[in-house]
Amino acid sequence: MSNSHPRPGDSPVIRAHDLVRTYGSGKKAYEAVRGLSFQVNHGEVYGLLGTNGAGKTSTLEVIEGLVAASSGTVEVFGKDPYKQRSQVRPEMGIMLQSGGLPSQLTVWETITMWQGTCSHPRDPIVVLKEVDLLHRKDVRVGVLSGGEQRRLDLGCALVGDPTLLFLDEPTTGLDPESRRNVWKLLVQLKERGVTVILTTHYLEEAEMLCDRIAIMHKGSFAREGTLSELVSTVSAEISFASQLAPPQLTGTTVTSEGDAHTVFTEHLQEDTLRILEWARENSVELQGFAARPATLEQLFLQIAGSTPVDA
């Protein structure tokens, strides 16, 4: 398998058809993943989000070749990732939620150890620069901060020059500056043609980085599409407080609690103008006025039923 990174638009890196993963058997069987069908294209950043117990981890384990699907088919680079794992694994970089790196090794010892396991390794000095750890190369892993350990986990995932990169909550524990630096690095990887499967509980991260996003709920995809496609299914909001109830505009829904009013609309700009004109014409003071476009968070919470985000 070549180490060159295919261009976006080439044949899909991942194909899944009617993917099912079941735990147990008989009456105690639990279906964690229920007939997923999807594909991930070359050079794409594909976001996989999920509500509590959605089946995201179970799905990833099948794609990564750690376990076999209970039924259905999965192909990675046109191969079965479980039965042909030895052929597929050299092209993968995997960053788990918890890397479990040996605490007594230094950063340099750790990255060079991982380098030695790779079929086509990159220069570890370059990789440590990318994850901003070169200045810490002689420090033991156990002494690193949580954020630095996450960056080292990312470096280990990158040192094999992967064509397909799995990132499981890569920026958890990072300060805002480090998080932004990781985002810049992921954009650079995408420009090099690397395909990325990203899970995150930072919805802003998914909005910024992902070409397409799937939101899992109870083992299935509740929604899948581009950010614009997803948020188009959610209404924008105009909120304010006033003693006078707002007018009922065509195509809107209004909820009120005392003097607090929220207008749900598919036409944010036009209806914001209408409400402001209504307030001026009726000498109504609008307190706490805000006009908010639809967001991924709104959709996520709608799907989750207001349960906490668990990517």
Characteristic key phrases:
26% strand; alpha/beta; globular; 2 domains; 6-stranded mixed sheet; Rossmann fold; 4-stranded antiparallel sheet
The CATH class of the largest domain, by name, is Alpha Beta
Query: What oligomeric state do these chains adopt?
Result: single chain
CATH superfamily of the largest domain: P-loop containing nucleotide triphosphate hydrolases
What is the makeup of the main sheet? 6 strands, mixed
The helicity comes to 25-40%
Number of alpha- plus pi-helical segments: 10
First and last CA, distance: 32 Å
Total number of distinct structural domains:
2
What does this protein look like?
There is one protein chain. This protein has 311 residues and is of the alpha/beta class. The chain folds into two domains: 14-231, Rossmann fold (3-Layer(aba) Sandwich), CATH 3.40.50; 236-293, Alpha-Beta Plaits (2-Layer Sandwich). The protein contains ten helices and 13 strands. The chain has helices spanning 56-63, 85-88, 107-115, 124-130, 146-158, 176-191, 203-209, 227-231, 268-281, 296-304; strands at 14-23, 30-40, 45-50, 71-76, 92-95, 164-168, 195-199, 212-217, 220-225, 236-241, 253-257, 260-265, 287-292. A six-stranded mixed sheet has the order 5-6-7-3-8-9. A four-stranded antiparallel sheet has the order 11-12-10-13. Strands 2-1-4 form a three-stranded antiparallel sheet, with helices on one face. β8 (212-217) and β9 (220-225) form a beta hairpin. Residues 1-9 and 306-311 have low confidence and may be disordered.
